[in-house]
Specification:
The protein is an alpha+beta fold and 247 residues long. Helix content is 28%, strand content 28%. The protein contains 8 helices and 9 strands. Strands 1, 2, 3, 4, 5, 6, 7, 8 and 9 form a 9-stranded mixed sheet that branches.
Length: 247
């Protein structure tokens, strides 16, 4: 597929097409409160970190969001245990306070359903790396959501993330794309995204009864959702895998 990759900063008129591009996210994954508050701000306040790909007909078939933040401001290179949520908060806090960023974090790479399986995610990851390099950064980090982990919700993330094939590359397809691009695993972000809601909300998001105490397996969830019927709520705490991309 012939692709034209652009930044939203260069072509702001494409914002609507980017936002209208269909995706395959499970409904519950879009209910993270931190993401809901900050993700929509990226194309508005940081359009130079939003990339999109058009096919030969000019249709948007993929997009990639990232954010700059100050990882080394306090002299510490440790990536946050709260992963995706925390890097979003830190990026916009740094922006508000005028703190100079030193690192770019990937936030999402989304491919339209009809264009999946064509290698577009790897091409958008490469474009994201190139964009960060062109802006003078020397590293991209990524709180990666392994895309086959949902098939093994009870396997500890640390065990799953470090599983490799005979060729030494990660077992998980999305981790493997990052590894082939030059990234290495840094650490596990045990609480990268948190989705909490009433039992009725979870029933609406998933179509499941959510009437049993304990861990509930939900399609698309990387780990089980904790259900507390007597208290009237359920909570999903998703682990991700921090990967570092030297540029």
């Amino acid at each position: 597929m012939e692709l034209k990759v652009s930044s939203l900063a260069d072509r702001p008129e494409m914002l609507g097409a980017i936002l209208d591009m269909p995706d395959t996210w499970a409904e519950f994954t879009t209910q993270d409160a931190v993401g809901g508050a900050h993700y929509p701000r990226i194309p508005v306040e940081l359009p130079e970190y939003v990339l999109f790909a058009e096919d030969e007909g000019g249709e948007v078939v993929a997009h990639a969001y990232s954010v700059p933040f100050a990882l080394h401001a306090d002299g510490c290179r440790e990536l946050p245990a709260r992963g995706w949520d925390e890097v979003l908060v830190r990026a916009f806090s740094d922006l508000r306070r005028g703190v100079r960023p030193d690192t770019v974090s990937a936030i999402s790479i989304v491919v339209a359903p009809h264009a999946q399986g064509l290698g577009l995610s790897g091409r958008m990851l490469s474009a994201m790396r190139d964009n960060a390099r062109a802006k003078g950064f020397t590293e991209v980090v990524a709180p990666v959501r392994p895309n086959a982990k949902h098939l093994e919700p009870h396997t500890p993330m640390a065990e799953y993330a470090h599983r490799v094939r005979e060729d030494g590359l990660p077992y998980d397809p999305w981790l493997r794309v990052h590894a082939r691009a030059g990234a290495t695993i840094d650490s596990i972000a045990p609480a990268s995204m948190t989705v909490s809601g009433s039992l009725e909300q979870w029933r609406r998001w998933t179509g499941l009864p959510f009437d049993t105490q304990g861990d509930i397996e939900v399609p698309g969830a990387l780990v089980p959702v904790r259900c507390e019927p007597e208290r009237g709520y359920a909570v999903y705490v998703e682990p991700n895998v921090w990967m570092r991309h030297p540029l």
